[in-house]
Structures are given as structure tokens and as C-alpha cells.
Amino acid sequence: MNCSAKNPCSTGKMTGKIPKPFFVANWKMNLLTAEAVEFCQALKNRAQETPGVAHHLAIAPSAIALSTVTEQLKNLPEILVGSQNCHWLESGAHTGELSPAMLKDVGAGFAIVGHSERRAFYGETDAAINSRIKGITDNGLIAILCIGETEDEYRNGRSKEVVLNQLAASTSGLTHEQARNVVLAYEPVWAIGTGLAATPEIAEDMHKAIRERYTQLCGECAGNNPILYGGSTKPENIFELLKCPNIDGALIGGASLKINSFWSLAENGLKGYEAAGKRK
Ligand code: PGA
Questions:
Q1: 108 close to 69: Cβ distance less than 8 angstroms
Q2: Can you tell me the mean pLDDT for 243-259?
Q3: Ligand 1 in contact with 114 (CB < 6 A)?
Q4: Cα–ligand 1 centroid distance for 220 (angstroms)
Q5: What would you report as the CA-atom Rg of the chain, rounded to the nearest whole angstrom?
Q6: Does residue 230 line the site of ligand 1, with CB under 6 A?
Q7: Position in ligand 1 atom list of the atom nearest CA 185
Q8: Which residue's CA is the nearest one to ligand 1's atom 6?
Q9: Global pTM value
């Protein structure tokens, strides 16, 4: 049966409600354990001073800092902690990989997959990303799937073709239940770490197309999931981005490494989301 507003998905494994808006820190290969602890302590103070922000936040530390961060934030279970990658198998001879069981073992709630840095530098393919998503979601975890075009593809007017193809290939064969636990992140490669974020108009145009295609591919329930924007977000540009109808949060690299910028970014993003009267 197709899921729809009248017939929502109702069977199978299901993760808890995914926050909207949703601000996810991607620490990449940064922050040593002591720095991660310092960040978490400051985060706990901010959450106490300003309630109402924390349940929109998530952090993806390095694999080594993962259990330290989950332990540090155990009294703030509303902040999701997750991994920057995840294999699809439970265990086995896969040097350098992490399994869904390992993530659950340390209290992680999600995993990022398909980041452009993994696609470009480590040969990550859509087929592998597809398997990863299935393994992650079958284990009750949320998958954050990154898609985005390179600068050349953008200049050649191929952005939509590339991004929608990545989306279709990476989510191929997902059941509605698996698809419902996937958060999409549009991350134009030319905007990542460059200081040149996509304009709200460019980002919204792509997010709208992604939502339409994902709804066609995986049903209405999945189509309502958050679609994050990533690429040079900062406290100064997030308000206008979050006012756009189809931008539901951000995947944040550089600006997530310091508590002040991460927190201000989330606060300003929430204000933009609310100013536009969007539904949480
Ligand atoms: P950036 O990275 O915010 O540093 O541009 C975003 C990302 O790669 O997820």
C-alpha cells in the first residue's frame, strides 16, 4: 500500500520523530577528546540557560570521540549524537569501518552517509551509500544522506540532474519505513568550506525539487522529512535560509566547531523558521 496523508506508514521499525528544524554539527576530522568534552560542557550550560533549542540539535563527532560525547550528553538525551559514517553489516572483516551495532552500543542515534568528501576522496559510490542507508535504518537509526553537485556541474547547468540522480540511486529500493528514517542534506560541493553559501533562492529551488522527487520515490511520509542545507552556513546567513519553505535545518561544518557559533547559528535558524510560520 502506498503511504499518503490518509494512509500513513504504520508498520515496521520506526525511529522517534525527527526534529524540525534540525541543526547537525559535522565535526569531520576535528576536535580531540579534551576539546570535545569542553564543547559538551559549554553546550550543557547553554541548554540550561536557554531551553527550547537543545532538542533541535545533533552532533557528529569523530568516531574516537563518539562514546565520550554520548557520555557527556547523557543528561541531555534530546541532543542526538551520531557517527560520520556507518557500514551496513553487523560485524565482520571490514578494517576501518563501524557497524550499526557499534553505534547503538555507544548510544548513537544517527549516521551521516554520502558526504561529498567521502565520495570525492574515498571512492564512496551511490550503491555503497544505498547499502549503508538500509543497514542504518533497519537498526532503528536515522541516516543523514548528503547529495550535491560539484562546481563544474553547477557551472554547466547540471545541478538538478546530478543531485536528483544521486538521490534516486542512493535511495533505490528503500521501503517506506526505511525511507522515513532518512534526513536529506543538500550540500553543493562548491559551497562547502568556501565561505560562499548558496543563496536562499538557489537552495530553496533545489530543496523543492528534492522534496518532490523524494515524495515520488518514497511516499508522502518520507517526503515530509527534514531537508537540511549544508555549505558555509554561519549565524549571519542561516536566518534567511531557514525562512525558505523547504529548508528545514542545516548540516554545519566549520561553524559547528565552536560553541558560540554553533549555538548562535541554531538560535538564528530557529528564529528564521518561526518568522516564516513553518510547522515544527
Ligand atoms: P561547512 O561544511 O559548513 O564547513 O561548509 C559543511 C559540510 O561539509 O557538511
A1: no
A2: 98
A3: no
A4: 28
A5: 17
A6: yes
A7: 9
A8: 253
A9: 0.95
